[in-house]
Amino acid sequence: MGFLGYGPWFWISLSLYAAAAVLALALSARPRAAHLAAQVLSMAGAAAGVASSLLFLLRAPSPSSLPEPPLAALVGTVPLLGLTVVLDSLSAVFLLALSVLVLAVSLFSVPYLAPYAGKRNLPVFDALAALFVLAMALVFTAGHLVLFLVAWEAMAFLSYFLVVFESEKEDTVAAGTLYLVMAILGGALLLAAILLVFSATGSFSMRDFDAAHLPPATRTAVVLLLVAAFGVKAGVVPLHVWLPRAHPAAPGNVSALMSGIMLKTAVYGLLRFLLHMMGAQEAWWGILVLALGLLSAVVGVAHAFVENDLKRLLAYSSIENMGLIWTGIGLGLTASALGSPAVAALAVFAAVFHAFNHAFFKGGLFLGAGAVHHATHMRDLGSLGGLVRTMPGLSVLFLGGSLAISALPPFGGFASEWTTLQALVAGALAGPPALSVLLAVAVAVLALSGALAAAAYLKAFGVGFLGKPRTPAAAHATEAPLAMRLAIGLLVAASLALGLAPGVFARLSGLGTDFSARGALGLQLGWDVYFEYSPTHEGMAPPPPLAGLDPLPVLAALAAVALAAVLAVRVIGGKRPVRRYSTWDCGYGEPDARMQFSASGFSKAFLIVFRFLFRPTRELKAEGEHVYHPESLAYTTTHEPLVEKYLYDPLVAFVHRLSDRARQAVQTGSLRGYLAYVLGALVAGLLYFLLAKGG
Amino acid sequence: METLGLALASLQLLAAFWLVAGKRMHSHISAFRAQAVLLAVNVGALGVREVLATGRPDLLVVCAALVALKVVYIPRKLHRTYAAIEYRIEKDFLANIPTLVLACVALVLLVYAAVSGLGASVSATRALLLVEALSVVLVGVFFLLSRRKAIGQIVGLLVIENGLFATGLYASDGMPFIVDLGILLDLLTAVLVLGVLVLHIDDAFETTDTDRLDGLKG
Amino acid sequence: MRALLHPALAALLALLLSPLPTGLIRKVKALVQKRRGAPLLQLYRDLRKLLRKDPVVSTTSSWVLRAAPAVVFATSLVACSLVPVTVRALPDGVPGDLFLFFFVLALGRFFLVLSGMDAGSSFGGMGSSREALISALVEPAAFTGILAIAAYARSTSFAAALAALNGLGGDPLLPQAGAPTGWAPSALFLLPVFLAFVLVLVAETSRIPVDDPATHLELTMVHEAMILEDSGRHLALLEYGAALKQWALLGLLASLFLPFDPFLGVAGAAGLALSVAFFAAKVLLLSLLVGVLEAATVKLRFFSVPNLAALAFVLALVGFLQYAVTGIGR
Q1: Are B110 and A671 in contact (CB < 8 Å)?
Q2: In a domain, A59, yes or no
Q3: Chain A residue closest to B94 (CA)?
Q4: Residue A676: its chain B contacts at CB < 8 A?
Q5: pLDDT tens digit string along B55-65?
Q6: Residues A384-407: tens digit of each pLDDT
Q7: Does A263 reside within a domain?
Q8: Neighbours of chain A (3+ CB pairs under 8 A)
Q9: What is the DSSP string of C228-291?
Q10: Which ipTM value was assigned to this complex?
Q11: Range of the domain at A628
Q12: Cβ A608–C303 below 8 Å, yes or no?
């Protein structure tokens, strides 16, 4: 691997993705061959991407002890257009996450999409998917604002086509349309921000972006536009409405890519623009991001818990995780603006670490949901159950992913949540009192959302995989194909490795916190790349020493104790055979699948406790003559999403009314009328020019 | 060189007037073709000069693409589409021809007034070139407005594009290579799509009079 | 190697003594109710009896039901080993931090809740659902309490907390810092946090007023409903695990909030033994308090538990705000 540098490997990776797309189209007469070829080439491209990012992260540090300038490594220039592609630590970390995820997803797609061959235009889908990955790789490495924008929009549009793959379903098309509208909105906001920046600085290059030249009013507008644009992409509340619809509508492999890495482009963008390019100048930027993050964490996890559709549950949980990441970024921005680089570095590291982790475990969970759907054609938890016996291998992997996302040791999710908590504590201890109180609330919110996330995944695994199968389809499910299990296993193993050795990631990413050295923040490892502070800032004290985390001994102790306990009880109690008997039934008769605790029942108590958020209703319908012995009982519960009801519905109604009026007045429906508008606009433009010049 | 450009540009404007004054579809297409030839000659001349000066063949490539698309392919495609539609005698234009031509002259005067507002920031020759090119655009839009049949409207669209192309050429000595090619590609797609659309409209309404589309309003 | 000595000691102490608080609490309750009650060592006997019985496992269940007891036991014991039993451990290093402590317990709870759902029983599912909600509701109080302690100790690590609360961390209210006094006057600011942690302990150990460990009505059970399908050695490990978890939480309170130790002057192994014994005595004292609390209150309606959790959170937040206002730790 050493014979080529990270630059060539990067171009090889991009070329392989492009080749996958071309080959899929070229072989479209033979869909199966095209599918296989596209996925294999994508895997090769992903492997090259892993090589490129790892080579960059492992490269020998420059001989001078000076910190390298941001966006240091120029990988190359897009021919004819002069658009630069660059790598730095931040880009490389996200590129690594993308590449590993694509590796697993492509492997998964081979058996997952095979049933569609011949029935649907699989080669076109494969080609679009490969181009989607290519666009994301360019988003992470663009060194030029125009290239960033083009890649960003390409990513949005390509993913739209992937979402509406199963276009015969009305829900899917509606979800896709909503997604497209929100994506276009976000793209427009980003375009506006970039044009504002350009109008002030006159340069599209990220490298010589000079925030000092922005007038304060423009800067405020740019920050608000960027937060909104990235907020739409990240699915931050209240801009999240598209996410829980689009992610479940897409095929499993696409949801894994979208949730695993596409959402992270918003994280990358926020860090790249607000922190790196604009230098986190004012504290309120971070407070805004932090507040949005906290809101998203609570609202996201609350909806995840009450959701009964497995993929929608995962999608809402993505909103929660984006909320946690935004919380970290927000603290990083604020601390940076208040002049506490150590707290800022820790917070941003925590956010990037969590984003990196989330790419793997959420990717794995979405692939797991895809595998369940592949085997049972169902996503509703209320129709599943008992999969732990019919799909044992997949169950273990899904449980691993659930533990990881519930932030439980020894998985990566725990390490990054722990780091985020430490960053909040450090900020609360170092910051001014008002900030301390806000961060105390943030700690509580993180605790609540972490525990509720665990509850949501207990529901997903407990109802979906344990107990008795609730439908014949679930009872007759067969184990997922080996390639699927390998792909999910790769992601879960990566998550486990990150949890066992968080320090390795810290060193590798160059985002520098040394976990093993207790009591010290080892921040010398390259954070200077992102932080340049003027020492005149006052307001935040130097951070206190923090606790250390070394998960490996903890896991070793847990394993040893569990093993010893199992052995000890056998030694003390003697050989006692396990007897099998039916579940306790109060003496009536064996409980059947319908008597189990249902998915809605599991979260019903929560729904009632948090009724201000859901406004639940319930209705019991009894049919039959006698009140106490009805022939049938129907029990329905509903709950309403508040954000949609009180923010989006009035907005939509208003736009509708406005459009109706506008249509009657302006939209005559006559082609000639429209052409007259065009001529009128041209003449008006010329007249305006004439008068403006004259005046 | 400048003189040549000026001459070609005024010929293009004349071609636009020819378009507005024409009654038959074949004359519209011929007018468009003539305009395209003039544009190609202009681009070709600039291209030759650039090759001699800097060695970059960009403009010559654009010229070749222009000839292939606008002089050869698109007119033929339009003729064929027209032939595929059942022939009917219908009134096509909105008002009588002299009125239309007079309205166009008014538009050209407006453009002249607007460009003269630029003052000394551009040379006199360039200002004249801009007047010609922008007038082509406006006349094209006006033509689009004054015809009812779909094919005529396609030709109008193409003439507008010619005008825009020329404006870009005169305003900045040629747009970036990639933009030129992109526009041409766009145009090709538009003509293909519109050609199909015309056939469909003819099928559905038994006429290509686009005023009938008003009935689709919801 | 010396660094492992104290965790091992803490684990051993917990293994030996953890069933005792349960017996003590039951005894206190019985005496308050004018009953004689079960012997103090009843739980030890129960465990021995359970180990010698054949486990019965539901035909519906899977490996989760059989693995959960071992996981619960292991996480509880590891949590016990994280709690420092004496300030003498400091020079050798005290591993872990308070967040880790709660995350390790959460891992055990995750498997416990899953095992409740494994057999497909509605009772198990109901207990699991309630446990998941209750634990989520008290988590903010616990973490905010940790923040308050960290504000005082300047770190979330056990080592720093132990040092600060024993007066080693440069207490501003002490004339001179440096020598272990076994008492830091400024720690009184943490009184609300202590009360918050008592409520967390009540919820986490399934005690009145949150849950009733003595109930035999399935519909009101939380913890007992989850372990309804376990028997034999599986139930033994679960009961032992629950006792260990209780020991760990009581120990946490004793170690952080009752940092007195009259035997610090005694050197050598004898001194260590005295200090450890004093720690055990403090834990038993706290369990007496829990027993009185359990006898004096009634079980809350399930939907009133959120109010209790909110109270705990407010107490913890007040504890932190005292820091933010007074700036004790700065």
Answers
A1: no
A2: yes
A3: A672
A4: 145
A5: 778 788 888 88
A6: 999 999 999 999 999 999 999 999
A7: no
A8: B, C
A9: TT--HHHHHHHHHHHHHHHHHHHHHHHHHH----TTTT--HHHHHHHHHHHHHHHHHHHHHHHH
A10: 0.94
A11: 603-638
A12: yes
